[in-house]
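Next comes this protein:
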Amino acid sequence: MANRTVKDAHTVKGTNPQYLIEKIIRSRIYDSRYWKEQCFALTAELLVDKAMDLKYIGGVYSGNIKPCPFLCLILKMLQIQPDKDIIVEFIRNEDFKYVRCLGAFYMRITGTSLDCYKYLEPLLNDFRKIKFQKREGNFVITHMDEFIDELLREERSCDVILPRIQKRQILEELEQIDPRISALDDDLDDLGESSDDDDEGPPLEIRERAPIHRRRSPSPRDRHRRSPSPKHRRSRSRSPRRRRRRKHCISRTPPRRHRSRERERDRDRERQRSPHRSHKDKDHESRSKKKSSKHSKKAKSEVDIEIQEANELRAKLGLKPLK
């Protein structure tokens, strides 16, 4: 008896309001502890106090499919079916954000497409943070506008299949609803005006006074670094004959080296070796001079001795002496 819908309740979408939630989830809600302890004999007045005590929103969680208190209160609202004015007050409440989420979700399930666009679209300007419990049991921080956008666009929210509603374009063509005016239009207009002012640039007087930055002539190093102009570039595509000739030439002739670089290298080597060699050469020259002077003295002394002997013999024989 406690799980039956109120007798005076009207059918929603052609069925019992509680049937808008799937049977498996509905049976889990009936078996939950929160439903038995907190939702028993609730009225529309007492429901407000329970809604104010909410700390997060969500559907079912864990492997045993346990329902959240938010989902239990939604089923209780479908069971007692409160007046539309109470739901509208839930939506317009700005002090308690989870009370607003509760009224918006109930309006999305039971309301018509016109009521959904009329009461839920203004909530897209609410950017407050709300807690959402995922299927694994952990919590995620989301925003009110994201939750409302999910209700208007997605087919399922909080593990509940949402009834289909007509698209806004069709209702605008039928003139049943006014075209939506976004709160961002004013910001976009301001950005457009600021961009136009930037495009105009400074006045002519400031432009004339502004210094003109001349381009610096490229240095010879930069010229060597730059690639040649496209006119002097050679095409990469070559005939197979040229490629063969080039291969033969490379194989026959060794690569040429720049002569100036070789000369500079030789000079550097000579400079590095020159100080060591100069000392050695000087020592060698001094030694060679000493040796040559000694040999010359020895040779002179021997020659003089021979001349003396020869002159003695010549004197005995009566001949003239040698010079």
